[in-house]
Description:
Blueprint: H1 3-11, H2 16-31, H3 37-49, H4 53-60, E1 76-79, E2 85-87, E3 96-100, E4 106-109, E5 119-125, E6 131-134, E7 140-142, E8 153-155, E9 167-173, E10 179-182, H5 186-192
Parallel strand pairs: 1-3, 2-4, 3-5, 4-6, 5-9, 6-10, 7-9, 8-10
Helix pairs in contact: 1-4, 2-3, 2-4
Amino acid sequence: MTAEPARSAARMRASDADREAVVEQLREAAAEGRIDMDELDERLNLALTAKTYGELAPITDDLGGGPAVQATGEPLVLRGGIHGVQRKGAWQVPPRVLVHGGIGGALLDFSGAECGQRVIEVEVEGQMGGVRIVVPDGWGVDTDTLDPALGGLRSKVTGEREPGAPLLRITGSCGVGGVRIRRPGLRERRKKR
């Protein structure tokens, strides 16, 4: 019964972000000396021409550090609605997250999350309540294509992305409520201990 969903997930079409996540994992493996330059070139060609998750998965299977691609096509969708929504504590990070602030706002806290992804696509719609994102130390954040709209972007995330750490690629619109990005505070750090 579980073989059929796994087989159908392997046949799902891979996105550019999925291929890019594999490319990033391959480059890090080459920088760490786990594969040589010839093997890197060969695997990069395979990754860039892969059309499905089933074609991408074997390219990085022997590299460890968690899968670069999760064979689930379903993004995590959070909708703030009137009362708001939070995703925090221990949770499994999918390759794609959609967050709508609604009126009550949305909190997306990665500080206690389990993440096997190299690149996580986070599409935000700040709407009225806005979106708050908590990013662990060492993780990278890319907001280059995020539309500031009326609410704007306020990011307190500084520092370099550590090798092997995930990259959050945040796109969408800040809406009226805006998007706020920060590192874990004292409270989150205590809870993690």
